[in-house]
Write a structure and sequence with these properties.
Blueprint: H1 21-24, H2 32-61, H3 75-91, H4 108-115, E1 130-141, E2 146-153, E3 156-163, H5 172-178, E4 184-193, E5 199-210, H6 226-231, H7 233-239, H8 241-263, E6 267-268, E7 274-275, E8 287-290, E9 295-299, H9 304-312, E10 317-325, E11 337-346, H10 350-369, E12 373-376, E13 386-389, E14 395-398, H11 399-407, H12 418-430, H13 441-452, E15 461-464, E16 486-491, E17 494-501, H14 506-521, H15 532-538, E18 545-551, H16 552-559, H17 577-597
Parallel strand pairs: 3-5, 6-10, 14-15
Antiparallel strand pairs: 1-2, 1-4, 2-3, 4-5, 7-9, 8-9, 10-11, 11-18, 12-13, 15-16, 16-17, 17-18
């Protein structure tokens, strides 16, 4: 044997003097001190490994399962995995899931405003302790002792830096292993800047406040599917800051309008949503049923008649902002449930209201944008915008006179004759203007005006002096027989406002209602019924009054640069998914029944 006689066998050598054979083959044999150092490191590794295994086993026993990483799961598996994990946390007495309260000293916006200018030195943090809360939108781990979060709240984002050395309460790795994108996190810590210079909060006491059980879309893919965005508006708001901005602008718009009328001495009122008679506009109503009275009622299509009755009672300036319901089609600019504002002003006429409208809208646009000119992208944001100029005064266009000029024909003086009906019908056929049934003179005029006049109304434009036939609640024109003192304001080719000098003659009003009833009998579902209660109110005396209505939703579309009404409604009307599934099941059942019968 090559082994020296005085040395013990290799397998009996002390642990610290064992040498790897591969090391003996090296150019230089390791010293005893180096061997001891390596042995000590190996022992530490073994102890760490054993400790990790014990900790893992202990965690499982206490109901602390390891979650699979988000990126390796599909959304369904992620939901099941996350739900199981949170369920076990809820059953574990060592955890307080879904706490009742978390004190927030600053919103994220307030934190940035107060401390971002003060914290100027890289790598330094303030001694001030603050508490913030928000939703986790991104997680970046750097080793076992450092985790970065992007925390979002109130539309603002701040970075949170969690360092194991500053962690208070519980195990650092255990806590941060539980956090997922979408979770609501409360942070106690100190504001300052990281070594790279980004404003951040150094977390000392993080707390999970609520759990997101569903996998959020990634920042790269985003949430772009409109069907999902409209049905799950909460998810849309989480993922898309633009959606949040749209509804903040809408809110500011309504606040401005309300302030404008309050400052003019108007009183805001509320009128019934359910009516015995669907009046105040030409529209098809929704029908509901009152069980106690065993009575069918109509959801209101407009608050007009109630508001005018208040003026009869002595409330000279009233307005209402509220919902209207019209049982009609849905498209890019129509929703069956929509918001409008209507006001009525005693001792004014439609000329006064045109001036008031100019002041309101030009002031609103300048207040929100800083300018009278507004950029709008009708073809999408990847195309060139159009410029809509709200500088007053707005253009005024007489309806029938302008229509005659566009047609190159003289409009019949009496438009309520059969001859006039045939004239407008001929023009519609000639210019390929479609008019759905029932085909009446009023509907033909409306379609022709839309085809020839409204298409030119990009900038705010008043179309004025409508014929009596299509204006059952407007006062007769003081200069032009057969016309009324009415205007509609069109912007970007869509109606935004409708207003007129109000009809306050009860005899004339009753006859107008009778004429509308005849149109309804001809099949026009949108024609008005006779409202005897309103006529009786007029018999007590309505002072000379002007009335005005504006669609809040369409104006919001303009001010937020959106082309569909669904974008400015938090919860637009959608066909229920349940009904779609029911239809498919019904169809399948029919097919199965047919097969069995055959």
């Amino acid at each position: 044997s090559d082994q020296p006689k005085n040395d013990p066998p290799v397998d009996q050598q002390p642990e610290e003097t064992k040498v790897n054979p591969e090391e003996e083959q090296g150019e230089k044999k390791l010293s005893k001190n180096e061997q001891k150092r390596l042995a000590k490191l190996a022992k530490k590794e073994e102890e760490k490994k054993k400790k990790d295994e014990e900790k893992k086993a202990k965690g499982i026993e206490q109901g602390k399962p390891k979650e699979k990483e988000e990126e390796i799961l599909d959304p369904t598996a992620y939901y099941e995995n996350r739900s199981n994990f949170v369920t076990q946390l809820r059953d574990n007495k060592n955890y307080k899931t879904y706490p009742h309260k978390f004190h927030v000293s600053h919103s994220i916006e307030e934190l940035i405003t107060q401390y971002d200018p003060k914290c100027t030195e890289k790598g330094e943090f303030s001694e001030d302790t603050i508490t913030i809360a928000g939703r986790v939108t991104n997680i970046r781990k750097q080793g076992a002792k450092l985790v970065f979060y992007d925390l979002k709240g109130d539309g603002k984002r701040v970075q949170v830096m969690a360092n194991a050395n500053k962690h208070v309460g519980g195990d650092f790795n255990e806590f941060h292993a539980m956090v997922r994108r979408g979770d609501i996190l409360g942070i106690k810590g100190n504001p300052g800047r990281t070594k790279t210079g980004e404003f951040s909060v150094a977390a000392s006491e993080p707390q999970l406040l609520s759990y997101c059980l569903h996998m959020l879309p990634t920042a790269q893919t985003g949430l772009k599917d409109n069907e999902t965005r409209y049905r799950q508006r909460y998810l849309d708001l989480i993922m898309n800051n633009r959606t949040r901005d749209i509804f903040i602008t809408r809110s500011k718009m309504i606040q401005y309008v309300r302030r404008f009328f309050d400052n003019m001495g108007f009183i805001e009122v509320e009128t019934p949503m359910m009516n015995m008679v669907a009046g105040g506009a030409n529209a098809k109503p929704f029908v509901t049923h009152h069980n106690h009275l065993n009575l069918d009622l109509f959801m209101r299509i407009a608050p007009e008649l109630y508001l005018k009755m208040l003026v009869v009672g002595g409330l000279d300036r009233v307005y209402e902002i509220g919902k209207q319901f019209r049982n009609e089609g849905m498209d890019q600019t129509h929703n069956p449930e929509f918001t409008s504002i209507e006001f009525y002003m005693a001792y004014a006429d439609y000329h006064d209201l045109m001036k008031l409208t100019e002041d309101l809208l030009s002031g609103l646009v300048k207040s929100l944008t800083g300018d009278y000119k507004l950029k709008f992208h009708p073809e999408g944001h990847d195309k060139d915008p159009v410029i809509i100029d709200f500088t007053p005064p707005f253009k005024r266009i007489p309806m029938l006179k302008t229509l005659g000029e566009k047609l190159g024909e003289e409009i019949p003086k009496d438009i309520e004759t059969e001859e006039a009906f045939q004239f407008f019908k001929k023009q519609a056929i000639k210019h390929k203007v479609e008019c759905s049934a029932p085909v009446t003179t009023a509907r033909l005029i409306d379609k022709l005006v839309g085809h020839f006049i409204e298409v030119d109304c990009l900038n705010p434009t008043f179309i004025i002096d409508h014929p009596v036939l299509i204006s059952p609640l407007a006062k007769l024109h003081r200069e032009h027989p057969g016309l009324t003192e009415r205007f509609e304001l069109f912007i970007n080719h869509h109606e935004i406002c409708n207003a007129f000098t109000e009809l306050n003659d009860p005899f004339d009003q009753r006859q107008r209602f009778i004429d509308q009833a005849k149109q309804k009998a001809q099949g026009d579902d949108e024609a008005m019924k006779i409202d005897e209660g309103f006529v009786k109110a007029l018999e007590y005396g309505l002072p000379p009054t002007a009335g005005w209505g504006m669609g809040i939703d369409r104006l919001a579309m303009l001010l937020t640069d959106t082309t569909t009404i669904q974008e400015v409604l938090l919860y637009p009307a959608m066909k229920p998914i349940v009904e779609q599934h029911h239809d498919e099941e019904h169809k399948t059942n029919e097919e199965e029944t047919t097969t069995k019968t055959n």
